[in-house]
Amino acid sequence: MSALPPPLPRDRDDVPGRLNAQLQEDTLVAAMSEMVDRYSRNFPQHRASAGAHTHPTPKAKLGGDVVLLTGATGALGSTLLAQLVSNTDVSRVFVLNRRSPTGVPLVRRQMDAMAEAGFEASKLVRSPKVVLLETDLPDDRLGLSDEVYEEIRTSVTHIFHNAYLVNFNVPLSGFEPNVRTLRHLIDLALASPHPTPPRLLFVSTGDVWSKKPDLDGPVPEVLTPAKYATRGGYGQSKWVCEHVMANAAKTTPLRPIIVRVGQISGGRNGAWNAHEWFPAMIRSSTYLGCLPILEQDIRWIPVDTVSQAMIEMRDSPFTVHQLEHPRPVHWNAVMHPIARTLHLPLVPYAEWLGRLERSGRSLKTQARSKHSNEHGESDEQSENLNESEEETKRKNPAWTLVAFFRGIRPHRSQTPWRTAVGQTVFGMEHALSQAPCLREERLARLGGEDAVKWLEFWRRVGVLDWGVRASL
Ligand SMILES: NC(=O)c1ccc[n+]([C@@H]2O[C@H](COP(=O)([O-])OP(=O)(O)OC[C@H]3O[C@@H](n4cnc5c(N)ncnc54)[C@H](OP(=O)(O)O)[C@@H]3O)[C@@H](O)[C@H]2O)c1
């Protein structure tokens, strides 16, 4: 019997598939470019007020920079607020937060966020430097009253635009309010009466490189062609924002600062949002009874360093900056201490993933039969499975991200310029030249101490369950 012919090389065997993929990419690029064009129309002219060149700047008048910060209730935003307030070169911080959907008062929410991140919340939030505001950012004039808008317009020297919907399942159109907010901030900056508009720093993401260009090395700190940013609405929308800012810089005196951030890890007290992929992986591992081995380097950067670096970059002469840990470590550097602390064995990634895949099914079955037994119902009768879904999310959160975990590459590739979760390795010349906090003597490599702090934080906030194990 003759052997089967060898498979055709991938790029020759599926012409319709490739044409279809190209068509999809072209459609996405067209939508992204159309959005850039729409939000790049009619930038206002910047007009310094008469005598602005001779009048003292707000910095001189107030004894420091006046910063507008958006989105201070999240992980990075609350750290930025704490560090800006403590910075003696900053005299005032206007904070724009979106409204709470549940009506929790603004000050309470801000204090809770900062306390969770390990800061002296009350002292910082009540500092005379801080002006806390709650508003609808995508509305005209950022939803602010004329009086407040005027106060900000005439005094602000730096804008840190951090607020953003962080959701990887939303298409580009769902991020349009975020793009609109960015445009309102550009308009605000250009309406400044100062000789030069305030610097506008935008927190962007490595997802603008979601498709790796054919480069044998880290990706450079330049604006990316649209085709490299087409994977997912989140990265597409950040690409749109970057390009709207770049267009403003071509025709006005605005000098934007784009800071693309890689994976952010927990900060000074280990606080790391328990719903992100890595915390979910660890939380589920206590349930699955094992931790995964990955032959990969990690370049995660603690949130305090991200915040400090941004503050140090606020007068940068460059436009694009890329920020991740400049000194990577092997996965084992954090995973071995986690395994020791949790008393869990390390297993090949494929085995961990197999257990995760089986666990989702088994958890649902367990919850279904528990519910049936407790209520004397047959499986068919027990329709209320909301409880089981909640339980699945709590004990085994990685199950809800199983598609993401299927995409992880456990082995080192020949070109090590992509991390396990598909992020590209950043070139960082601009970032390193502007942010002394990234230097070797100031920023330690990630290691066991960090990993144990993350575990302690997840345990403290009640999401790391060390007792319950599945029988898989
Ligand atoms: N975490 C990372 O690894 C990472 C990596 C690259 C870039 N980034 C960027 O870093 C920034 C902060 O991220 P984070 O990790 O600190 O996220 P986070 O904890 O979810 O905080 C996001 C902040 O933005 C606000 N926000 C969310 N959706 C909004 C919307 N639709 N309109 C206005 N405000 C909204 C949140 O307000 P509520 O508290 O009201 O929800 C919160 O203040 C974002 O721009 C994100 O894209 C993060």
Note the main attributes of this structure.
472 residues, alpha/beta, Rossmann fold, seven-stranded parallel beta sheet, two-stranded parallel ribbon, 17 helices, 13 strands, 42% helix, 11% strand, globular, disordered N terminus, binds NADP nicotinamide-adenine-dinucleotide phosphate
List the helices and strands and how they pair.
Blueprint: H1 10-13, H2 15-39, H3 58-62, E1 65-70, H4 75-86, E2 90-97, H5 106-116, H6 121-125, E3 130-134, H7 146-155, E4 158-161, H8 176-190, E5 199-205, H9 233-251, E6 256-261, E7 264-265, H10 277-288, E8 291-293, E9 297-298, E10 301-302, H11 303-312, E11 320-323, E12 329-330, H12 332-342, E13 346-348, H13 349-375, H14 386-395, H15 402-406, H16 429-434, H17 448-460
Parallel strand pairs: 1-2, 1-4, 2-3, 4-5, 5-6, 6-11, 7-10, 8-13
Antiparallel strand pairs: 9-12
The structure holds NADP nicotinamide-adenine-dinucleotide phosphate.
How would you characterize the overall build of this protein?
Residues 69-310 form the Thioester reductase (TE) domain. The chain has 17 helices and 13 strands. α12 packs across α17 and α13 runs antiparallel to α14. The protein has 472 residues and is α/β, with parallel strands linked by helices. The strands form four sheets. The chain has a seven-stranded parallel beta sheet with strand order 3-2-1-4-5-6-11, sandwiched between helices. The protein has a two-stranded parallel sheet with strand order 7-10. Mean pLDDT is 88; it is low at 1-11 and 371-385. Bound molecules: NADP nicotinamide-adenine-dinucleotide phosphate.
